[in-house]
Specification:
Blueprint lengths: L2 H37 L14 H18 L7 H14 L10 H21 L4 H6 L6
Length: about 140
């Protein structure tokens, strides 16, 4: 077996493993959102405080948890760790690594779409200064 064929098979196996890992997360997060909406108790409206429901608070946390699962980072991860996980996953799941129109290329494109979504969700909470200078090491 040629080296190129071996590399292709390794990438194909990686994309299939990531596809299985990420596709299961969608149904998990859908059930969590449904549970949050079903258990939310509507607040008694008052004129002095704006009304917030439990699902308004829980849904952003569910989105962030799902994004962390997709990228595989801990809740305490800083911006450089999130960026590094994004770069590794994005490079491995590049559809250009597979023949155009193949099943693996389609799965890789879907994985990349979810990786970009997760990175957008997690990087939104960091300010632009931290994004630009967070990875610099100054002695």
């Amino acid at each position: 077996m040629s080296t190129g064929r071996r590399a292709y098979n390794i990438l194909r196996g990686y994309v299939n493993r990531e596809w299985d890992r990420i596709s299961g997360r969608e149904s998990d997060s859908a059930y969590a959102e449904l549970d949050a909406a079903m258990t939310a108790v509507p607040p008694v409206p008052s004129q002095s405080t704006p009304s917030t429901t439990a699902d308004q608070v829980a849904l952003p946390q569910i989105r962030e948890d799902r994004a962390r699962l997709i990228l595989g980072v801990a809740p305490s991860a800083n911006f450089s760790q999130i960026r590094k996980a994004f770069e590794v996953l994005n490079e491995r799941a590049a559809p250009a690594n597979f023949p155009p129109g193949s099943v693996e290329a389609i799965k890789a494109a879907e994985i990349q779409k979810q990786i970009h979504w997760a990175y957008g969700v997690l990087s939104a909470k960091f300010d632009s200064t931290e994004k630009r200078f967070g990875s610099l090491e100054i002695d």
